[in-house]
Recover the amino acids of this structure.
């Protein structure tokens, strides 16, 4: 499209720059899927969507609850007497019963170890809106936040775009299962300071997207201690808190600061029902700050993204039904665990390992053995093959700013069992074909060209997986894989 | 170095203004017919509560839309997952059709040019983010909606400069006022990016004349800047002259292929017309595809709940219903407005003749101790605390003349309105009794006002003739 120089200048920089991040590969995969979506009968050769972190496993439970609770809707005969009051309700404090329900839910998800104050619950337009709002409250244009990588690709937009902030990544590596170390935090902080970048805080996602892991107590305490020392903020995006399906349990930052000497004015939580309950369309975002000024300011800003009162009313009813919630969370965990198991085991059988994880709607798949070379270009090349030939939309690690090429995030909770089978079969075929091709080429030359960054154990891994995939069974993990040795 | 952002500590959110303080007073002592008959009557809230029965009866007849079903099948899952920022296509289609209907089908809208946002609050802010930045300014005719201070400036860093309008010509926009505002912005070293108008006007309750719209189009063409027309009250026009939108003017002047076409943007919402502010349904309509694309991405920060999109798509697609609703709603608004005007007259208070909106722009200049904003505040406090009516002082709307107040009428029953008018009459009467000198002042002012009110009616009569082709 042609536009005159004049007309472009009439729009803001924000409207015309790239900082919305939608030109990243993360969205390219979506586009490939959109133009050729898989369907078991109508389009069995289409692209299977494995790039969308959605929780579709428990809608039957929700639908049953809806049928049994017609008064949760302001539009049914049972609920219509509330219609008018709810339709005019635009108080940015939000419906009390809704906040009560959310506070109870957060408490339960946190293992009943900490109570959340319903008066601190502030609404926002999804976690997307919540993260942006918190940034608007904590930092000014030009300031920066430290973000451990790999991180959710959407942060580029949510944290930076209209706020005009910067992200300083904190490198995390597979050598220690991508743990956030104090050393890495300090290094990133110092590097930023030397470049005259004003760091206002750290933002983490716990459980992690894309890793699917929860933070342990020591890491969390170390984080709190770090931000206290530097007198900067800590924002914890706990959007995946209830997707933990096996131990270790989820620990909310709210629990950590209960037992620590810490300036609470620096601690802020972002939450949402989009992942735990599978309701991204309802746009329920929550800002929970321990800082009164931030809470008050975020509440005023919530005018820009309030939760529809119709939705608040509906969810108030559902979340205050404690029996239902308990049952839902238990069942959801079970189904996520099963799906995770089917996938990760299925991949192991063909020699593909993934980071050991116990949460999230995805796992972090290790495709380093299949890369031509350990570079981002090779990763993207492999990714394009996976999209176009294998027809699976998975997300390349580079779209999460991962510092090591070869990792891919694979979502598993947004499809039915049959699609899972098809996806696994396609991967199996792809890996086997790859193995056959490699048998033909000269492998020794190939290994000599390997990037020296590889650890000794990783090289051994590649050797073994590429030469003898048929020896790998479901019950015998690759002996030298550092991933399998991991205990977290 | 501050621990928090400057946005937290400044007060550009505007919520320390009297507009919001009056609300707080009301919250502390709200009128209730039974439980608190001495409480404060809320007349500061521009809500349409007159037609809920129509919506409720539609819902009773359309149970599927009400309960996540389509043709008897549950579509909850589909809705719960739907987070496409392009919006539910069936809803966008229904919405643009509704907008066209409001404009007498003289203009049509393309659903691909509409962006859904969490209320008009979000729509206006988003447009600012797209069209302007720090160092830029938008011109706004006074008096204007107090919330604009927050919506347009707070997080965007954009400035606003007033286009001063006065009672001498019914607060209409003039070419000289536009030019003066533009110059003022330049003197402040601000780059003017556009003009934002509300049509029908809040707080005036009047529709813009074709003359004003032409002036605006000429102005933005000449200066090569944007025009945002916030038409949130377009469905509340209950009397002639008929509503004329800026899009209609562009079309009539055959400007669809011109440069100015892409610089005109419309904001809409269902909060006033349908009385559904809680549902947070706003929209931006732009003729510029880059603005549409950028605003669409930004809507991620405030999408409309899919549950709500679905419900309203069914409702607005029912054309028989929308036609009936608009007709009945207009009649009720007109009736209630006349009751307010008549009640005010009994208290010797006049107001700007209006044909739209959920409020009247009331002239209490003759009740001021002096022609100052301090006197206006003094009067306002008496009305809130003594008369127990929460109305909005003109200064909170940035009016250049003291003594004007916005009084809402559509958020209460006829009885409550009657009571409010009785209280006002007593109050005015008591001022008269207590203050002789004030009485003299009042008498002279009353003569002036009567003449002036007559002039207003005379003027509007002429406008009417022009607009009714």
């Amino acid at each position: 499209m042609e536009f005159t120089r004049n007309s472009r200048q009439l729009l803001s920089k924000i409207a015309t720059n790239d900082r919305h991040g939608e030109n990243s590969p993360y969205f390219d995969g979506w586009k490939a899927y959109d133009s050729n979506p898989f369907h078991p009968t109508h389009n069995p050769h289409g692209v299977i969507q494995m790039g969308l972190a959605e929780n579709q496993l428990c809608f039957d439970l929700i639908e049953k609850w809806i049928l049994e609770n017609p008064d949760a809707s302001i539009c049914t005969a049972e609920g219509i007497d509330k219609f008018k009051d709810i339709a005019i309700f635009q108080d940015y404090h939000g419906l009390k019963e809704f906040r009560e329900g959310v506070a109870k839910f957060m408490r339960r998800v946190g293992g009943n170890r900490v109570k959340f104050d319903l008066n601190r619950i502030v609404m926002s337009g999804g976690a997307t809106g919540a993260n942006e709002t918190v940034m608007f409250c904590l930092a000014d244009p030009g300031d920066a936040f430290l973000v451990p990588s790999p991180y959710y690709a959407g942060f580029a937009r949510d944290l930076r775009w209209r706020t005009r902030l910067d992200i300083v990544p904190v490198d995390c590596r597979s050598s220690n299962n991508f743990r956030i170390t104090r050393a890495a935090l300090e290094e990133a902080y110092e590097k930023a300071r030397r470049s005259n970048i004003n760091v206002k805080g750290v933002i983490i996602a716990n459980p992690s997207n894309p890793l699917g892991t929860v933070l342990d107590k020591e890491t969390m305490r170390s984080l709190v201690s770090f931000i206290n020392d530097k007198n900067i903020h800590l924002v914890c995006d706990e959007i995946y808190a209830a997707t933990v399906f096996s131990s270790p349990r989820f620990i909310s930052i709210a629990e950590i600061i209960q037992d620590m000497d810490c300036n609470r004015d620096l601690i802020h939580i972002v939450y949402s029902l989009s992942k735990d309950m599978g309701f991204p369309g309802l746009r329920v975002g929550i800002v929970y700050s321990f800082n009164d000024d931030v809470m008050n300011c975020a509440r005023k800003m919530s005018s820009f993204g309030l939760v529809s009162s119709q939705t608040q009313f509906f969810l108030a009813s559902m979340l205050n039904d404690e029996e239902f919630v308990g049952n839902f969370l238990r069942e959801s965990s079970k189904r996520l665990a099963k799906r995770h198991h089917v996938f990760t085991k299925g991949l192991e059988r063909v020699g593909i390992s993934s980071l050991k994880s116990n949460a999230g709607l995805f796992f972090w798949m290790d495709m380093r053995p299949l890369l031509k070379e350990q570079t981002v270009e090779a990763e993207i090349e492999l990714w394009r093959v996976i999209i176009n030939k294998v027809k699976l939309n998975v997300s390349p690690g580079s779209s999460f700013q991962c510092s090591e090429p070869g990792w891919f995030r694979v979502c598993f909770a947004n499809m039915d069992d049959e699609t899972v089978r098809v996806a696994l079969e396609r991967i199996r075929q792809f890996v086997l074909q790859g193995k056959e091709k490699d048998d033909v080429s000269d492998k020794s030359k190939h290994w000599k060209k390997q990037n020296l960054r590889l650890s000794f154990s990783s090289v051994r891994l590649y050797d073994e997986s590429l030469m003898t995939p048929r020896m790998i069974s479901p019950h015998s993990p690759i002996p030298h894989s550092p991933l399998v040795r991991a205990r977290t | 170095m501050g621990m928090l952002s400057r946005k937290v500590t400044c007060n550009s959110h505007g919520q320390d203004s009297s507009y919001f303080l009056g609300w707080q007073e009301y919250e502390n002592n709200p009128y209730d017919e039974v439980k608190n008959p001495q409480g404060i009557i809320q007349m500061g809230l521009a809500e349409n509560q007159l037609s809920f029965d129509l919506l409720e009866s539609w819902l009773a007849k359309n149970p599927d839309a009400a309960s996540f079903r389509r043709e008897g099948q549950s579509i909850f899952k589909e809705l719960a997952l739907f987070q496409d920022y392009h919006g539910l296509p069936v809803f966008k289609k229904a919405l643009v059709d509704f907008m066209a209907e409001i404009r007498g089908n003289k203009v049509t809208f393309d659903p691909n040019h509409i962006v859904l946002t969490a209320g008009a609050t979000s729509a206006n802010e988003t447009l600012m983010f797209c069209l302007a930045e720090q160092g830029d300014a938008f011109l706004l005719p006074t008096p204007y909606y107090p919330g604009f201070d927050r919506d347009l400036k707070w997080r965007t860093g954009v400035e606003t400069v007033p286009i001063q309008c006065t009672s001498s010509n019914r607060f209409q926009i003039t070419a000289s006022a536009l030019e003066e505002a533009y110059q003022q912005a330049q003197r402040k070293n601000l780059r003017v990016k556009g003009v934002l108008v509300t049509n029908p006007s809040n707080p005036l309750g009047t529709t813009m004349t074709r003359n004003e719209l032409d002036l605006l189009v000429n102005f933005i063409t000449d200066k090569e800047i944007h025009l945002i027309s916030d038409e949130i009250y377009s469905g509340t026009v209950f009397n002639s002259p008929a509503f004329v939108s800026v899009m209609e003017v562009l079309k009539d002047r055959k400007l669809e292929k011109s440069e100015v076409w892409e610089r005109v943007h419309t904001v809409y919402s269902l909060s006033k017309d349908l009385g559904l502010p809680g549902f947070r349904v706003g929209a931006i309509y732009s003729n510029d595809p880059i603005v549409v694309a950028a605003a669409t991405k930004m809507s991620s920060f405030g999408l409309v709940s899919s549950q709500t999109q679905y419900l309203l798509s069914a409702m607005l697609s029912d054309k028989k219903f929308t036609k009936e609703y608009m007709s009945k709603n207009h009649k009720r608004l007109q009736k209630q407005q006349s009751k307010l005007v008549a009640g005010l007259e009994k208290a010797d208070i006049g107001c700007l003749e209006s044909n739209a909106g959920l409020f009247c722009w009331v002239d209490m200049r003759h009740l001021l101790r002096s022609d100052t904003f301090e006197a206006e505040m003094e009067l306002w406090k008496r009305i809130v605390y003594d008369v127990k009516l929460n109305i909005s002082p003109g200064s909170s709307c940035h009016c250049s003349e003291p003594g004007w107040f916005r009084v809402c009428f559509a958020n209460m029953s006829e009885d409550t309105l009657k009571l409010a008018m009785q209280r006002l009459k007593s109050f005015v009467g008591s001022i008269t009794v207590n203050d002789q000198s004030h009485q003299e002042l009042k008498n002279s002012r009353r003569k002036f006002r009567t003449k002036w009110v007559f002039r207003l009616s005379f003027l509007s009569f002429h406008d009417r003739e022009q607009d009714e082709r």
User: Anything to note?
Assistant: Chain B has two domains: 6-52+325-427, 65-322.
